[in-house]
Amino acid sequence: MNSQPTLDDQPDDCPVREYYQQLRSADPAQREAILDRWQSAPLPPVVATPRTSRVRMVAVVVALLALVVVSALWEFRTPGTLYGADDLPARLVLVDSFRMTGWQHVPNPGGVNQPSTKLPFEIAVQRPGRYRHTFNSISQNGDQQTIVTGFQMCDGQHQVMLNDTAREYARFPVGSLDAALKTEELAQGYAMLMVLGPPDTNYERVGNETVKGINCDQYVANFEKNAVIRLWIDPQTGWPIRIVAETLNAAGKWTPLIEITEIDINSELPDSLFTLSPPEGYVDLISKLKPGPSSDPANSTAEPPSHEVPEISMQSTGSGHCNDQSLEIWHSFLLSPDSALIAWKRTMPKATDDGTIDWLNGIELVYQSGKASRPLKHQWGRPPQDKQWLWSIIKTADGQPFDRGMIQMTFRGKGCNLTNSIVPLLFPDGTLDRLLQAADKSQPVPASSEPLTLKSLRALTTQLK
């Protein structure tokens, strides 16, 4: 029987192997150094907005499908027209676990008559804070093709990144709330992309077909020119049995890009899925990046490592820089069907002649759903301060609920145009309140106003008429 502590039960600090004891404190610079090293292989430009290297590394399927990561408005979505297709997000957020496995097909650069390369594909989620998923990076220069494979994993207490091609791995401690955030990023964004495609994908039922002995309803959607997604859904459960994304090749033949052949909902996932023993012969990148002892202890400024892992790290998930300007986003959380909270940063604007600072100067906020762009209203969740994360409450100007789009924030200034997009995540109220309180405590400068609470933020949404 598997056992996993809940968010409320999970301790902030857990014993780890003595080998990693000195790495108990989160080290963003060290983590980014490892991620940057793994980015040395050329990757196709697949993400439309600036994202961190971590996101670029795991978004290979997005590269092949040329899509934008979709957002999730599970519980609050308006009723869909297709049982088992449009309402999948609303039901997936309620499950304890799911696992999807299959194959990614990489076209042969030698031509359509050459066999493609099949790479294993897997996404596994066990709430509240465990996940595992593969990444397959493909780059091509003429007839020369480079494939990098690996996976990322979180057991609720540690995050592991393994590069099978380079035979390297890294293991970091992670706080319980960070683990929950990373899990929901995968479950409410990337995984749903595999199921439903981009936000403006429209499915049409085309008939019935038997798959694994089940008489399934079959749906088809075109998501871009010469590309389709096919769903086979069990009409009794509403869950997909098989998912295939296909493209029309130069020979006029439909060929698969992604095949999801096994989909398990609320099955008991073995602990082994979220456990990694360092593979023999793989290089531990953390040990390679650890600074050596100072030859002059008197001149050493290094502090002894902390034995506390913060619940939350608040590292930006999207950032852009131009000249002396920067724009960063941490996360967005749903507050109601038509409102959300965004945590973001920017370079402090110059004061006006009367000494006031307009933190929204040059900032544009819209809700992007496929090709449609909807305006948003804005209200500060707390008064903005320099060197702090800024808390913005946004609400749809048309009063309609969020669907499967993304919140897009753009800064336009002299010689600069920076854009970040974010998926608004849905959490239970208790977990969201805990996330907000932990984020508030992690600010570099103590806030000069009342603590953030879900109750106070929701009260502020009523001011956005």
Strand content: 35-45%
Parts with pLDDT < 50 across at least 5 consecutive residues = 1-82, 294-306
General form: globular
Number of strands: 21
The CATH architecture of the largest domain comes to: Clam
| Helix count, DSSP H or I runs of 4 or more residues | 8
Please identify the structural class as seen in this structure: alpha+beta
Name of the CATH class of the largest domain: Mainly Beta
Helices, strands, pairings?
Elements: H1 28-38, H2 53-58, H3 60-65, H4 88-92, E1 97-106, E2 117-126, E3 130-141, E4 144-154, E5 158-163, E6 168-173, H5 176-196, E7 204-211, E8 214-224, E9 227-233, E10 240-248, E11 254-265, E12 283-284, H6 285-289, E13 318-322, E14 325-336, E15 339-346, E16 363-369, E17 372-380, E18 390-396, E19 406-413, E20 416-422, E21 424-425, H7 429-441, H8 454-461
Parallel strand pairs: 6-12, 14-21
Antiparallel strand pairs: 1-2, 1-11, 2-3, 3-4, 4-5, 5-6, 7-8, 8-9, 9-10, 10-11, 13-14, 14-15, 15-18, 16-17, 16-19, 17-18, 19-20
